């Protein structure tokens, strides 16, 4: 295989259908995303069966549209990368089936990509890329992890969530305050109008040693605070905003304390922050301040690549295809999959 490879990336692990074309020499060529937010909003969360059906409907037209807009023909595409897990089984199967069929028809290799590796490497799509080794804070709807990264596929999970992921806590907080789905951006936007001095929420697990995290207690704290406000006739938009602000500050502070600890423990000063929750303003501000104080640097994907997208899958898959790795035709999807099980390249 040469060192130039044009790869089609396909992401379908949850509620976004993302496709992209990445060239290992020219960089990102094109990308597009179809979000199912409207489809799931009426149910207050992702309905897996509806997600799978929608991925199947949208994938092929989206890929054809992408190729047309980028003026790329099937003959030019040299590999396909698809999300093989973790994620919703049906949704993963939809993407994998399309990817494998195209790879078979076009007679090119395909590779199943770990969704979290996609997130972890997303900052590599930017001009200013982090060098290895670094600490990665991976905060998404399903995961909150602190990882030592020594290279592609060289991952050591230093800390994990014991219960809810950071994004899940945002989503549940939004749900109990009736702010709609998806919760993260809604909580964050309302928090902008919140008074930070009204409530002080706990910083979970920071007084215990180690790098594991837990956010379910914070969610319960939010519920109790809101219920007390309702009982005291203080239920209002302002109260909701004040709660959102206190919640967001508690999450941001907790993550910052854990990252500081991880950097100190590993003797590193580069921090990569990725996954949907890395789009959060307050969290970025706290982590930037932490890194400025340490004379280190924080790296993030651009906002649209924080949440699920095809570009990060195309990038991660392209690196592995370039190293000669590929997935057999009798593919499997892996709804549960540890980052530490990935081979190094
Ligand atoms: O990475 P992602 O798109 O999907 C998973 O792999 O899980 O992350 C989605 C999560 C959701 O929980 C969403 O509420 C959260 O990221 N999120 C945010 C923000 N934007 C998205 N959370 C806090 N603040 C945001 N601005
Ligand atoms: Zn994701």
Set down the secondary structure blueprint.
Blueprint (H helix, E strand, L loop, with lengths): L5 E6 L4 E8 L3 E9 L1 H5 L6 H23 L8 E7 L3 H18 L3 E5 H7 L12 E6 L4 E8 L2 E6 L6 H11 L6 H9 L24 H16 L5 H30 L3 E5 L6 H13 L3 E3 L10 H13 L23
Helix pairs in contact: 2-3, 4-10, 5-6, 5-7, 6-8, 7-8, 8-9
5'-O-[(R)-(carboxyoxy)(hydroxy)phosphoryl]adenosine binds next to helix 5 and helix 6.
Overview of this structure, please?
A five-stranded mixed beta sheet has the order 3-2-1-4-5, with helices on both faces. It has a five-stranded mixed beta sheet with strand order 8-7-6-9-10, with helices on both faces. It has helices at 37-41, 48-70, 89-106, 115-121, 166-176, 183-191, 216-231, 237-266, 281-293, 310-322, and strands at 6-11, 16-23, 27-35, 79-85, 110-114, 134-139, 144-151, 154-159, 270-274, 297-299. The longest helix is centred in the C-terminal third of the chain and has 30 residues, at 237-266. α6 packs across α8 (237-266) and α7 runs antiparallel to α8 (237-266). It folds into two domains: 6-121 and 305-341, Nucleotidyltransferase, domain 5, CATH 3.30.420; 133-300, Nucleotidyltransferase, domain 5, CATH 3.30.420.40. The chain contains ten helices and ten strands. A hairpin with a 3-residue loop joins β2 and β3 (27-35). The mean pLDDT is 96. The chain is of the alpha/beta class and 345 residues long. Helices cover 42% and strands 18% of the residues. The protein is globular, with a radius of gyration of 20 Å. The two termini are 15 Å apart. Zinc ion binds at residues 115, 119, 140, 276, 308. Residues 14, 119, 140-142, 167, 170-171, 182-185, 188, 275-277, 279-280, 307-308 line the site of 5'-O-[(R)-(carboxyoxy)(hydroxy)phosphoryl]adenosine.
């Amino acid at each position: 295989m040469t060192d130039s490879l044009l790869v089609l990336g396909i992401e379908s692990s949850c509620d976004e259908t993302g496709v992209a074309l990445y060239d290992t020499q020219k960089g990102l060529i094109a990308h597009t995303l179809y979000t199912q937010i409207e489809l799931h909003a009426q149910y207050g969360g992702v309905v897996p069966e509806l997600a799978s059906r929608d991925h199947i409907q949208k994938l092929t037209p989206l890929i054809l549209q992408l190729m047309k807009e980028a003026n790329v023909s099937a003959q030019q595409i040299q590999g396909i990368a698809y999300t093989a897990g973790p994620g919703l089984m049906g949704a993963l199967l939809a993407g994998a089936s399309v990817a494998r069929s195209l790879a078979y028809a076009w007679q090119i290799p395909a590779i199943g990509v770990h969704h979290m590796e996609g997130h972890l490497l997303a900052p590599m799509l930017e001009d200013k890329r982090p060098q290895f080794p670094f600490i990665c804070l991976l905060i998404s709807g399903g995961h909150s992890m602190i990882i030592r990264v020594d290279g592609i596929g060289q991952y050591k999970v230093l800390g994990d969530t014991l219960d809810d992921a950071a994004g899940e806590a945002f989503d549940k907080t939004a749900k109990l305050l009736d702010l709609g789905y998806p919760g993260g951006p809604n909580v964050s936007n309302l928090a902008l109008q919140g008074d930070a001095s009204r409530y002080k929420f706990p910083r979970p697990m920071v007084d215990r040693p180690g790098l594991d995290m837990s956010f379910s207690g914070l969610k319960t704290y939010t519920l109790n605070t809101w219920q007390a406000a309702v009982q005291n006739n203080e239920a209002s938009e302002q109260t909701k905003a004040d709660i959102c602000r206190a919640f967001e500050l508690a999450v941001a502070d907790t993550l910052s304390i854990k990252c500081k600890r991880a950097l100190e423990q590993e003797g590193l000063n580069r921090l990569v922050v990725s996954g949907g929750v890395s789009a959060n303003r307050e969290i970025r501000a706290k982590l930037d301040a932490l890194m400025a104080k340490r004379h280190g640097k924080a790296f993030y994907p651009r906002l649209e690549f924080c949440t699920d997208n095809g570009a990060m899958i195309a990038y991660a898959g392209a690196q592995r295809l370039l190293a000669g790795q590929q997935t057999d035709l009798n593919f499997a999807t892996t709804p549960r999959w540890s980052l530490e099980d990935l081979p190094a390249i």
